[in-house]
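ok new one. same drill as before - structure tokens go in, u give me an amino acid for every spot. 74 of them this time. try not to just spam alanines like last time pls lmao
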């Protein structure tokens, strides 16, 4: 199950689990759309491709909440 990280690792922007606009690599490093574009859709951590992260909504989100651990290093 995806961790659904709550923020962009590059700029700290919030990435709500129930909204589109987050991009992840296969290790779930998470970035907002502008940062993913600036990174040419490549993860700076592993070099993997950044892909659209699916949303988690409704009962699925209630039963499986997103992570609250932020990863922005500032």
């Amino acid at each position: 199950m995806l961790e659904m990280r709550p923020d962009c690792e590059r700029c700290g922007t919030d990435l709500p689990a129930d909204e589109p606009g987050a991009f992840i690599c296969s290790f779930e490093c998470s970035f907002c759309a502008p940062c993913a574009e600036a990174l040419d859709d490549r993860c700076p951590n592993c070099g993997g491709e950044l892909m659209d992260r699916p949303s988690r909504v409704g009962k699925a989100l209630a039963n499986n909440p997103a992570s609250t651990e932020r990863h922005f290093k500032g």
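The chain has two helices and three strands. and btw The first strand starts at residue 22 and ends at 24.
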